[in-house]
Amino acid sequence: MSAPTSLRLRPGLLTAWRSPGRLQLGVGAVAHVLEGLTTADELVVDALATGADPTSLQRLAALHGGPPERTRALLEALAGAGALERVEGRGPGARPDGLARTCAAVVGASPTGRAVALGLAAAGVGAVLVEDEAPVTRADVGPAAFSPSDLELSRGAAVVRTLLRHHPSVRVQPPPAGRVRPDVVVLVASGAHDARRAEPLVREGVPHLGVLHLGAAAVVGPLVRPGDSACLRCLDLHRTDRDPEWPRLLPQLAAPPGGPRRPEPADLAALAAAVAVQQVLAQLRGHEPAALDATLELDGAGALGVRPWSAHPACGCTWADGVLAAG
User: Fold this and answer.
1) Dmax over Cα atoms in the chain, in whole Å?
2) Which end of the chain offers a freer environment for a tag, N or C, measured as fewer CB atoms within 10 Å?
3) Burial readout 278-296 (b: 16 or more C-beta within 10 A, e: otherwise)
4) pLDDT by 10-residue block (mean), the chain, 327 residues
5) E strands along the chain, which residues?
6) E strand or H helix that includes residue 271
7) 175: cis peptide before it, omega within 30°?
8) Residue 108's Cα: distance from chain center in Å?
9) Cβ–Cβ < 8 Å for 266, 143
10) C-alpha to C-alpha distance for 305 and 299, rounded to whole angstroms
């Protein structure tokens, strides 16, 4: 018999009691304050720090005069504030229930792509697939990157080996029954995205996130929800409207698979990967990622800018049945 699904406060969430009965969740613009909490409510919140199933929480509250409907309302309020997550099983090894059942794919195992894959596995994503047939070279070897023992492997295989070493429970291969459809695909590129790589994802309705290295800068986004948001081709069309020579520049800037490696500063790769992981997790959890209809632009000093985008009228990706018309 499987253990009941537990709930817990989201890891990393800062909480503080403003006064008896007044609980603040989070800090700054994202903070929420719950008012009028009873002693029973406070005990439920305390129990959620380590996790408990809803029935146990109701029993705990009942011991201190809290009716079940009030406990249910408290849990709904906490969930509405984004403060709760469901966990699978019990104990410190329990993983977020929703994430453990999700699958993300990373296409492009550069240092940034490698860090994205490891970050997703560390966050509890159940399956992380990595695609990159380019061989590991000596230029790829370094701290927090590939090791000399990876030199006989493709970059994709080397990342998979590292994933299994650090996260042995993560699934790194599709099931034997056949092809798996990822919940999100991360497309890692250098210089410029080749939107043609994303065309199958648009046609099949698979959400995907662009991650782009520009030497001294990096761009995360857009996160594309096919049929509902701007796609990579939309961005190229907007750029062409502003610069008619963009189509000539694009193939020169886009690094072909297996082409010469372009350096990725370790600090910028780590920053871009962290932001990308945040966007993927937001998508997997059903939230609205900041990179939806936007690109998040990072420079070497760590500054982040947000550039909004819209679907281009000539693309067709958001028309009725647009996923068939795009491309």
Assistant:
1) 72
2) N
3) bbbbbbbeeeebbbbbbbb
4) 70 89 90 93 89 88 91 94 75 57 94 95 93 90 85 93 89 69 95 94 96 93 96 97 95 73 85 96 91 94 90 84 45
5) 6-9, 15-19, 22-25, 32-34, 84-88, 95-96, 103-107, 127-131, 184-190, 208-213, 217-224, 294-299, 304-308
6) helix 266-284
7) no
8) 16
9) yes
10) 9
Domains and CATH numbers, the chain: 6-95 (3.90.930.60), 102-325 (3.40.50.720)
Q: How far apart are CA 5 and CA 82, in angstroms?
A: 18
Collect all residues with Cβ–Cβ distance below 8 Å to 212 and sequence separation of at least 6.
188, 189, 190, 191, 192, 193, 218, 219, 220
What burial class does residue 221 get, using C-beta atoms within 10 Å of its C-beta: 0-12 exposed, 13-18 middle, 19+ buried? buried
Best CA proximity match to 261, nearest among 161, 130, 145, 135: 135
pTM above 0.85, yes or no: no
Cβ-count burial 171-198 (b if 16+ within 10 Å, e if not): bbeeeeeeeeebbbbbbbbbbbbbbebb
Q: For the chain, how many residues are written?
A: 327
Measured CA to CA, the distance from residue 74 to residue 259 in angstroms comes to 55
Distance CA 307, CA 295 (A): 5
